[in-house]
Structures are given as structure tokens and as C-alpha cells.
Amino acid sequence: MKTAAIITTVIATFLFLYTSYMFTYDPISRSSRDGMLLFNFAVWYAIPGILWVIYLITQKK
Fold first, then answer.
1. Please, what's the largest Cα pairwise distance for the chain?
2. Nearest to 23 by CA among 6, 53, 43, 46
3. Which of 32, 34, 48, 61 is most buried, judging by how many CB atoms fall within 10 Å of its CB?
């Protein structure tokens, strides 16, 4: 589970940075809506966040 969480976090980071760049600087897909970067973050990090929570809950101490 930890490996899946790490891999999805790395993929989400690259996708978040790419789409954030697109929303901020690209003249075609620029978005000026309020909260768009926060929504972008929530979309890409939802699955990794769930996987990390599952990993931390199931981890034996």
C-alpha cells in the first residue's frame, strides 16, 4: 500500500504542477475563476490522500 501511495503522490505532483502552469500562464487554457488552483489540488491529490490514510490506519505499530 505504501508503494501505491508514493507512486500516486509522485504522479499527482507532476500533473498538479503541469495543470497549474496551464491554468496560470497558457493563453488558451488560462482560468481566472476563484479557487481554481485549490480545486486543481483537490482533484489530483484525492486518491493519494485516501491511499495514505489507508496505509496509516492499517500500519501495525
1. 51
2. 43
3. 48
Q: Residues 3-45: pLDDT tens digits?
A: 999 999 999 999 999 988 888 887 777 777 778 888 889 999 9
pTM of the model: 0.79
> Rounded CA gap, 26 and 8, in Å?
25
Residue 35: other Cβ atoms inside 10 A? 8
Q: What is the DSSP letter of 26?
A: -
Residue at grid coordinates 491511499: 51
Which of 1, 14, 6, 4 shows the shortest CA–CA distance to 44? 14
Under 8 Å between Cβ of 23 and 30: yes
